[in-house]
Amino acid sequence: MKLTKIVSFRLPLIVCLLTCGLLYCFSYFIERWFEKLSVHQNVSELTSVISSIERELTYYSQDDNRDEFFQSLLLILTGHHRLFVYIVDDSGKILYRTRGPNLSIALKSADFEEIITKHTTTVSNVNQSSYRIAASRVITDQNKQYTTIVAVGRDLQIEFIRRLRKGLKILIGISCILALIGSFISIYLTQKPINRLIKKIERINLKNLNHRISTSSVPVKYVSLVRAFNKMLNRMEDVFQRQRNFTADIAHEMRTPITNLTTQTQIVLSNARTTEEYREILYSNLEEYERMSQMISDMLFLAQADNRQLVPNLVDINLHNMMVMICDYFEPLADEKAIKFELEGECCHILGDRMMLARAISNILSNAIRYTPENGIIKITLAQVSENRVKAVISNPGKKIDSRHLPHLFDRFYRVDESRHRNGNNTSGTGIGLAIVKSIIDTHKGNITVESDEQSTRFIINLPTAIQPLFNIKVTD
């Protein structure tokens, strides 16, 4: 909420500053454009008048056409507002001047000769008024030299630009205020549905994780956000549900051996026993302790996998030879049910942790033996999928697993039915075994899937030949 308030004030302020900046730049360019336009108009007007006067002076004769010259000057100046002319000869005698400012002071200016030679103009203040002045010098046929000074008043233009600047400042101020108010209103209207959404989200806690926000109650532009949030809630609810189930299952699994130990101890203490009876009870208790120790070790292994703390000790592994060794290890257990192993295919060597991969394959084969009927055949197929990946398929005949159970087989303590409880001889019956398998395969940057039909259940393992992260690699025979 504090962040929302900060944004509510900061964003309008930023919009206001941006508006001020843009309008100031726009006003600056408008003002400069008008100034350049007025200068251009003044220069054009002065140049035109001087050119006309120079032309008349060229034909001017003080004796013959004096009156005609003055009439021509009047015609030239007609239509020019606030234009002033000052003409003197080489002796300083005034030939013609208009009423207005005393332009003779321009003759004393230091840059007067530069104005004539370079045909430029200058700005001069006379009697608290500003004028743009141009000058020229003409020599007539009678070798008479005349200097012409022409000035145009700038007061109206200066006043116009001053008022324009003042108007633009007022416009900038009003625009900034409107932008600030508009930003506040816009943010308020925009945040109103967000605030409602935040209140709905704040009401969701561990007790009502099953609550979902309806997409029909939010604006269209927030529908995708609500859907993403609902999906996140689904994942969170699933994680918490699995965590609750996991806690309940581990408590149940730990309670069974503890109950057995307590019961056996109470029975032993109820009456005097012989040394041999005590020995049998201790052996029975030892089995329960070993089972609990194995379960705790498995849980610690899964905790390391969850926290990405499993670091495989990479060595060169011949996957075919490993499968042969594991099958030989399980052969006595398979012989009890007259089960046979069939190993097919070849693949290249891979880099992996020998102990981890052996444990994963052993867990799968242990499950396969448990659920394969007597006289069945467990098939192991190896294949080279590509240059960088190998595939191992372990299939066993037996009862089909319903498709709704397949995605959860690698969850901890998940059982397809009640018949799949721990049998007392193998800790993998707790439902941790396949979770360990998945953790090991994931640590090796591979993936494992399971398929099941009326003919068989198949565990499909895909492994890379090498793992990208830098671990210590040992090459063995």
From TrEMBL:
Chain's role: Member of a two-component regulatory system.
Keyword Disulfide bond applies: no
Keywords associated with the record: ATP-binding, Cell inner membrane, Cell membrane, Kinase, Membrane, Nucleotide-binding, Phosphoprotein, Transferase, Transmembrane, Transmembrane helix, Two-component regulatory system
Residues of the HAMP domain: 188-241
GO MF, any single term: ATP binding
Parts of the chain that traverse the membrane: 12-30, 69-88, 170-189
Xref: NCBIfam families: cztS_silS_copS
Domain Histidine kinase per the UniProt entry, residue ranges: 249-467
Signal peptide: none
Reaction equation(s) it catalyzes: ATP + protein L-histidine = ADP + protein N-phospho-L-histidine
The protein's name in its UniProt record: Sensor protein
PANTHER family on file: SENSOR HISTIDINE KINASE CUSS (PTHR45436:SF15), SENSOR HISTIDINE KINASE YKOH (PTHR45436)
